[in-house]
Predict the structure.
Amino acid sequence: MAELDKPKREVDVPSDWTYASAPESRDIVHIRERYGQFIGGEWLEPAETYETIAPRDEEPLAAVGQGTPEDVGRAVAAARAAYADGWSALPGSERAKYLFRIARLLQERSREFAVLESLNGGKPIKESRDVDLPLAAAHFFYYAGWADKLEYAFPNRRPRPVGVAGQIIPWNFPLLMLAWKVAPALACGNTVVLKPAETTPLTALLFCDVLRQAELPAGVVNIVTGDGRTGAAIVESEDVDKIAFTGSTEVGKEIQRRLAGTGKRLTLELGWKAANIVFDDAALDQAVEGIVNGIYFNQGHVCCAGSRLFVQESIYEPLVAKLQRRLATLRVGDPLDKNTDVGAINSAAQLEKIRELVASGVEEGAEIYQPPCDLPEKGYWFVPTVFTNVAQSYRIAQEEIFGPVLSVLTFRTPEEALEKANNTPYGLSAGVWTEKGSRILWMAQRLRAGVVWANTFNRFDPTSPFGGYKESGFGREGGRHGLEPYLRFEE
Ligand code: NAI
Ligand code: MG
């Protein structure tokens, strides 16, 4: 822990107490040496494998299949057969039962999933245990509730399933993104081929075990692991009716180009550079907590991370001082330690990207602050960082860093805050901190962002639709809106 202002005492009492380590046991998780592709309810032997590792120390965890176009073809065929063989015609009330079962099983096995998520992805166990797992289960519960009420959700529109959904997800919330994709697809009567990200396949593979426990009919959900080539094979597969993608804007654009003219449906949830805006009447201590949660949660690997902080000039100095002081108390280290606030960076490639962008910030003239911090020797780590003196033109103010790095900018009037916040090709989320309700509403109406949080940040709920504007993508996930991409209407 870093130096904090400590009271001077006459008597010599120990004052540098630190947290003892509080590791979560990993015994609850059984990782197999080798995983196949989960297709048609069976594990098929992969033609080729790669090693998935733990980012905290680069420990090899398992050999995982690098899905080939043939694997994808088999998975799509299995999904099509399951769709035609009864899943799509099953009454909604029956589909709901499977979703409820899956939700309950996730709750029962949540510690196992949380440990595996932290091990394979690097996020603190505190977050996987208290955020990822409860939310993943909540998504299944929530969409289970809709499965037999689609006619009420869309009155007089005769909702029908779309068919086979190809779903490609990223590594920042592996199980949660799976839940966001799989739950609404199944609730609407579709079948699924899902590809987890190459660095974080293990919780999706453990989820196959939950599917078997839930006795979900074979082929309704198929999981194919592999890298971008496997993803591209899903996009190109002729018998897929809909693609749902979460990831980089670059790949999102590529997918949109590939699908143009094919008639296949598409939803994209892409990158962003969220503005977190603090007015001079905001409760500063709460705002500091919100800023910290906004950018250092999950090492900043969050599509809606509050990576651009806009501070009203009159409170700039006290706010930055409070923020720096708070940063020094963040505990960076072993994701499996229950005290850890900031875990490991997900991959060597992502660490490299963060380093490169941070170096560009220093070079362009921003002032960097990093608290003193002992980083583990092995693995991928980055110290929580704040940049001040940032101009809007700097790369760190424009490009998605996707790491624990905050850029602080200032403004004088609400109009200026708005103009600067909207001055980006993206639009996914934003935060407003002020005591005035009228100002919150004024800002929320004008911010070009799919989600606007007021006096809080990074809050998620399955009932609330989430999605972007502009280059952050299109389509909504969550809420009743999240059903629509998985339905066609016989009007
Ligand atoms: P990515 O977009 O390459 O990967 C996301 C998913 O897409 C993975 O499952 C990957 O295997 C798959 N994929 C890659 N190329 C594909 C292709 N041509 N066709 C179909 N699927 C493909 O993102 P990456 O490389 O992991 O991260 C790069 C940057 O993207 C990050 O630094 C971050 O800025 C951003 N990102 C944004 C996310 C978000 O939640 N919006 C999530 C992950 C990354
Ligand atoms: Mg990529």
Observations:
- The chain has a mean pLDDT of 95.
- The pocket of magnesium ion (ligand 2) is lined by residues 228, 248, 251 (CB under 6 Å).
